[in-house]
Specification:
Elements (H helix, E strand, L loop, with lengths): L3 E8 L2 E9 L3 E5 L4 E10 L25 H9 L4 E5 L2 H4 L9 E9 L12 E6 L3 E5 L4 E10 L25 H9 L4 E5 L2 H4 L9 E9 L2 E6 L3 E5 L6 E9 L23 H8 L4 E5 L15 E8 L1
Length: about 325
């Protein structure tokens, strides 16, 4: 009789799963929380008793049967997933010992993601349920995004009226969330961003998600320089420039208008924050020229502008 044996053991202080699956069956690796990390694996035979029921002696006699590529097959197909199924057969692992009835012995653990750092006391924390629109706003200064996640990390937030299966996955994170919100909102006084799969992608299909954003209001100034124009930013006294955000592109259809509507397409993003930080930080005065020769032209044929948020510190 073919069988699959599951044993829980402690490996280096971490709870691991040791799973034995006979040749011809399907091995199922799963994590109720976290993601799979394969520790060891072998497709072959190292004793005469495992997966031996009903098998003739000559199929069990070779107990030195190992396949060195077993671990790489498992890690390639399973690492980083919550669930993984593989048929235990020669076509998947190749046959290390023809004529021997084999089995797969795999050990894995479930890796939990580190908890997100708590926001600073002065930060604004905004939670927006899926399909609603998040609205970030600063009465004074400009938006500085600290953290963001589109997904689900508990069962209670945005749970009203939702079935249990849409709330059960509490390890749902989208690692591109922060960059998406920064691109759309940093340096602005007001910003609206839909909490939808179209904007962030779907990190966990079937789960009802929400957007959790932490941000502060930077007490700085913002300057807009239309394409091919120049301007300067400066600080008085002993204060020096500190660049918070810079974009050379177009984020709306109102700023720096032109006659050609096609040249006013929005969401032309080319972050120049680090570029201007290197150029201007620590100076009293910094001359800026908004041109394709000075900055990355990510959107040809679009009439762009340089948008800079800064403070004097």
């Amino acid at each position: 009789m073919w069988f699959s044996l599951l044993v829980i053991l402690c490996l280096h202080g971490v709870k691991a799963v040791d799973l034995i699956t006979c040749e011809g069956l399907t091995v199922n690796l799963t994590c109720a929380q976290g993601t799979i990390k394969v520790l060891s694996a072998n497709y072959g035979r190292t004793d005469r008793t495992t997966c031996s029921t009903g098998r003739p002696a000559h199929q069990l006699s070779n107990v030195q049967c190992t396949q060195s590529t077993s671990l790489s097959v498992l890690t390639t197909q399973c690492d980083g997933k919550q669930n993984c199924s593989i048929v235990v057969r020669n076509t998947v692992f190749t046959d290390p010992c023809p004529g021997t009835y084999k089995y797969l012995n795999v050990s894995y653990e479930c890796i939990l993601p580190p908890p997100p750092p708590p926001p600073p006391p002065s930060a604004n924390n905004l939670v927006t349920c899926e399909s609603d629109t998040a609205r970030l706003s600063c009465a004074n200064g400009s938006i500085k995004v600290l953290s963001a996640n589109y997904g689900r990390t508990d069962r209670t937030t945005c749970s009203t009226g939702r079935p249990a299966h849409q709330l059960s996955n509490v390890q749902c994170t989208q690692n591109t969330s922060l960059s998406v919100v920064i691109t759309r909102c940093d340096g602005k006084q007001d910003c609206s961003i839909p909490a939808t799969n179209n904007v962030f992608g779907d990190p966990c299909v079937g789960t009802y998600k929400y957007l959790n954003v932490s941000y502060t209001c930077s007490q700085g100034k913002t300057v807009i320089i239309c394409q091919d124009k120049s301007s300067a930013i400066s600080c008085e006294g002993r204060r020096r420039l500190h660049i918070h955000f810079a974009n050379y592109g177009r984020r709306d259809k109102v700023t720096c208008p032109c006659r050609d509507p096609k040249a006013m397409s929005t969401m032309c993003i080319s972050s120049e924050t680090r570029n201007l930080q290197n150029k201007c930080n620590g100076k009293k005065h910094c001359q800026l020229h908004a041109s394709n020769s000075n900055f990355n032209d990510r959107c040809p044929r679009i009439h762009k502008y340089l948008e800079v948020s800064y403070s004097c510190e």
